[in-house]
Request: fold
Amino acid sequence: MAITDWPENERPRERLLARGAAALSDAELLAIFLRTGMPGKSAVDMARELIIEFKSLTQLFAASHADFCAFPGLGDAKYAQLQAVLEMARRALTEQMREADALNSPTAVRNYLRLALAGKAHEVFCGVFLDSQNRVLAVEELFRGTLAQASVYPREVVKRALAHNAAGLILAHNHPSGVAEPSRADENLTASLKTALALVDVRVLDHFIIGHDALTSFAERGLL
Reply:
């Protein structure tokens, strides 16, 4: 049955307008994005199958062009639309980060990092460079690695901090395994970076580990 044949109070778009986006399930939100289904499948049915196929919204958003378009009913147009939506979300979160103290209002930073890094198939190491008022100067991908690790060079991180005239730095990287627990190697790397950056008066304020559905803060764990 097509969604247009459903009772009005059960249709995702009408429910969103009446109750807000937070009231909808992942599949219903994705169905609104898809707009139409396929012969014999409503947009909600298709959305549910997509989430099962990719295991979560996070991994769907991180899917490659080829993997996304390989799913029946999807193609270049839908992939382009999704990438545009994700990029707008990232830019909106970047604006929020730049307007507030990153430590007193950390939600935008965390949301940005989760959107940017969660679900990636390879490890990515990023830096959020801050001024003396903890306002965001820049966000950069510093190193990119493999499924297991990324090689991180403290000297290069110091050079980028100096280039931005940063007073503080928030580090972040993802674990492609999906587990957001810091390893001993992560702890040792953080200590090395903290020591190197201290020599040029740049403080390491936190290091976030991003998993598929979770985020771990070194500062909150007492690991800095």
